[in-house]
Amino acid sequence: MKFIEPVSQVMRIIDTPDGAYSKKLAAKVVGVEGLCTFPVVAQMVLNILSKEDFKMSNVSAIIQRDPALAVKIMKLANSAFFSRGKQVDSIDKAMVRLGKASVVESVCAVATMNMFPDVDGIGKQIRDHCASTAAICQSMVSDLLPSHKSGAFLCGLMHDVGKLFLISAGESLYATMPVMERQKADASVPVERATLGYDHALLAAQLLFTWQFPAPIAAVVALHHEPGLAYQNEDVGYVVAMCRIASQVDRQLAFGVEMETEEFVERIATGIDGEFAAVSEDYLLGKWNDLAEARNQALSVFG
Ligand SMILES: [Fe+2]
Ligand SMILES: [Fe+2]
Predict the structure, then answer these.
(1) What are all long-range contacts of 51-60, with beta carbons under 8 Å and residues at least 24 apart?
(2) Mean local confidence (pLDDT), 66-70
(3) How far is the CA of 64 from the centre of ligand 2 (A)?
(4) Ligand 2 center from residue 165 Cα (angstroms)
(5) What gap in Å lies between CA 251 and CA 294, rounded to an integer?
(6) What is the C-alpha separation between 143 and 287, in angstroms, rounded?
(7) pTM score > 0.90 for this model?
(8) Which CATH number applies to 5-35+117-302?
(9) What is the pLDDT of residues 229-276, one digit of tens each?
(10) Which residues have C-beta within 8 Å of that of residue 195, sequence separation ≥ 6?
């Protein structure tokens, strides 16, 4: 299997000399593909949109072939994340309102989350964490660097989806991690690499590439636990930093029992991610209630 470049970059660092871990990752990608089928309709939509001369009316006609997908896309189109104030009442209008980049983003988002309708326990916590991180990430990027807004929601949503794939494939490694340990930034990665030979970020990135997600999304997902590599590229690095910060903000909002908000925002602003993306303490404190509200909205769309 040929890995996408950001996945290869990380595997070159963590693999054994005989490439055993790359083989394990390739086998798991194939295994998950067999278990979790990316909806055919979503695949057709992404295919059409990848062509220069696509017609939006063709896109909405295809989406309407899958009523469950269409309903959720409408809900997302009318949510604060994609609507620009006015509500739409048909998928045709929703497609026109959203425009190409946001149609790609919302189809990918809904189709992927639909793969995990019945998760409970740890799976449900991870799904909610993905949805919340998407909202927080998009909200911060819209404020601080609007030119990078497109894709920020999807990057946040997909960043930890690899953990859901691992759970779906029967891996039980999260169940044996203490709850507070599981919540810490980057904590699951050494456990995954030691147990499996790869991590959730690499697995998800390669799968998203297979399903024709936009390349920058797969790159951000692949590198979200490798800031040292990610920050060598300004564009990918910026969204990686915002995903990493959003992920920690969600945990603070959900389980903020270990430290006060002031202490938390200081730690973020002076950490590698806050410094790279120039996210200040004042910004985070002033924005705190809005981020909590964005998080609640995401949970109502995807929860
Ligand atoms: Fe992660
Ligand atoms: Fe996360």
Answers:
(1) 54/100, 56/95, 56/96, 56/100, 56/103, 57/92, 57/95, 59/95, 59/103, 60/91, 60/92, 60/94, 60/95
(2) 88
(3) 32
(4) 14
(5) 14
(6) 10
(7) yes
(8) 1.10.3210.10
(9) 999 999 999 999 999 999 999 999 998 767 899 999 999 999 999 999
(10) 171, 173
User: Burial of 20 by CB count in 10 Å (0-12 exposed, 13-18 middle, 19+ buried)?
Assistant: exposed
Model confidence pLDDT, tens digit, residues 159-209: 999 999 999 999 988 888 877 677 788 899 999 999 999 999 999 999 999
Q: Is the pLDDT of residue 85 over 80?
A: no
Q: Would you tell me how many other CB atoms lie within 10 Å of the CB of residue 51?
A: 8
Tell me how far the alpha carbon of residue 158 lies from the centroid of ligand 2, in angstroms. 9
Asked whether 205 and 10 are in contact (CB, 8 A), the reply is no
Q: Coil, strand or helix: which one is 279?
A: coil
The 8-class DSSP code of residue 80 comes to T
Q: From the CA of 56, how far away is ligand 1's center (Å)?
A: 34
CA 168 – CA 165 distance, rounded (Å): 5
Domain range summary for the chain, segments of one domain joined by +:
5-35+117-302, 38-114
Could you tell me the distance, in angstroms and rounded to a whole number, from the CA of residue 78 to the centre of ligand 1?
A: 28
Instruction: From 22, 29, 46, 58, select the one nearest 197 (Cα to Cα).
Output: 22
What's the 247 CA to ligand 2 centre distance in angstroms? 4
Burial of 16 per CB tally in 10 Å (0-12, 13-18, 19+): exposed
